[in-house]
Structure formats: C-alpha cells, structure tokens
Amino acid sequence: MTDTDAFAERKTRASDWFRALRDEIVAAFEGLEQSHDTGPFSDDAPGAFEVTPTSRTAEDGSDAGGGLMSVMRGGRVFEKVGVNVSTVYGTLGEAAQKSMAARGVPGIESDPRFWASGISLVAHMRNPHVPAVHMNTRMFWTPNAWWFGGGSDLNPCIEYDEDTAHFHATQKAHLDPHGPALYPELKAWADEYFYIPHRKRARGVGGIFMDDRNTGDWEADFALTQDIGRAFLPAYLPLVEKRRVVPCDAADREAQLVHRGLYAEYNLVYDRGTKFGLATGHDANAVLMSLPPLAKWI
What does pLDDT average to in each consecutive run of 10 residues of the chain (298 residues)? Predict the structure, then answer.
C-alpha cells in the first residue's frame, strides 16, 4: 500500500470526522453545565472548556502534527473532563517499531513512517452518583497497513444496573447495523482490555472496544468507527442528566476517590494509548489528561 492521493483523502475525512465529533461533544458537555440548575453543586458557576493547541516536533525539528486539548475543570457537573483531538505523523522510534511488529503490522521495521488521528475523552464527575466515562476512536496508517480502533466504557463508583443496561443497549443499537455478531465481540474485547490484572477486577462496567480493525473495506470500517462515536452521547448524556441531581455525602465522595485510584493505575500501567503517546513525543499534558484531578489509595 502506498500513500496515494486516494488514501490522503481518506486521512482527511477521518481527521475531519474526529474534529467534528469533538465539537459536538464539547458543546453538549458545556450545555450540561449551563442547564444544571438544581441539586448538588448547582449553585456553583458553570464550567467551560479551556482549549489549548498541542504540537509535536520531530527529532530534526520539523513539524510532526498536533491537535487540540480541551479541558474543563471545576464545573458544576464535571470535576475534570478532557476532549482531545490530534493528527500526528512522522517516523516511529525503535521501541514503537518493535511493538507494532510484534502485533503483526507488516513492513513497519523496513519503513517506519506513520500517520495517526483520533479523539480521546475522559470525564471525571463532581457528583459521585454520575459515572465517569472514557471514549476514544482513532485511525492509524503506515505505508503497508491501516486500521481503526477505539470504543467507550463506563466507570461508575456507585453502580446502577439500569444505567449499565442503557449504556450497553445504546451501543448495541448503533453496532447492530454492522452485523449482529459485532456488539458481543466488542463487548467481550472491552471486558478483557479494561481488566486490571493486579487488582483482579475490571475498572468499570464495560462497554465496547476494538483495535487493529481492518477488514479490507476501508469505507465499512470507517462507518463502524463513526457509529461508535455517534453512540457516545445518547449512551451517556441521559445518565448524567438523571444522576447529577442525586444527593451525595462524604461516604459517596470517599468511594469516588478510591475508585479513581483504579482508573489512574490502569491508565499509567496498561493503557496502550498512553504508552504510545508518551513514546512518540506527543504533548505529555494532553496524553495524561485522562488522569483524575484527585484520587485516593487506602
């Protein structure tokens, strides 16, 4: 595979989609801040996103891409939420080459050029009854391969079975048009991927996840990736709207802070995206924006 004009157009379409999804989510989250007028923390000032351009420089000093880091802190609904988009490119370092070769990426050691674009979102909430959430979708290209990846998963510290059911049912509804076997497959993948071995437990109540998605049909795989993104807001916003008004106390906050420790451990020890971002020299603040503002270990 070569980087033909046709594939360059696909890269543009993918990066444009991730940016459009980012804009939609940022607007929806700021809308939640504005509309929160009753219940815990409703007397506080509404939060807004601080948007910072990010950049990446190659070893020779040349441009290697960048993106936007959008972070809201101290809101009425969101204690900290980041919605990042990036498009980066260049040459993979030796460690990244070996990692991808081990995953079966063809030709990466002989031609280590790459291009990657995606959106990454993590929300840590004020009210402990509102679940934390993670979502990302991405496209990766090398001269000899391309693939999509990503998904979303729910991370409540106080679990509600009906919230979990809604989150999964919405994802299933968006995935079923792509084949009835797909949702069970990606759900099982998420259960395995978001497991914390040293704690012998999952970090949340699951969701969907995929990686290395290349069926040979770029249009079909891109359409699936878009529907994973489209599922996010209808899966998550109703949960926020329902739980943000629930009274909370010190015991709920304690449970929230301890649960956040699980999230931090997973992202620093196991998360592939975190490792890739740091290894390829992307803005460290953008890579680590997923970490909670406060956490506790006991």
Answer: 70 98 98 98 98 88 92 98 95 82 84 93 98 97 93 98 98 98 98 96 97 96 98 98 98 98 93 78 77 94
CA separation, residue 265 to residues 66, 157, 260 (Å): 26, 15, 9
Residues 6+ apart with CB under 8 A from 256: 128, 157, 158
Cα–Cα distance for residue pair 36/53, rounded to 1 Å: 29
How is residue 58 written in tokens? 């190659």
The catalytic position among 36, 124, 129, 134 is 134
Active-site annotation holds for 134: yes
Is residue 40 within 8 Å of 79, Cβ to Cβ? no
**Strands ordered across the beta sheet of 132-142:** 50-57, 63-73, 78-91, 113-125, 132-142, 145-155, 206-213
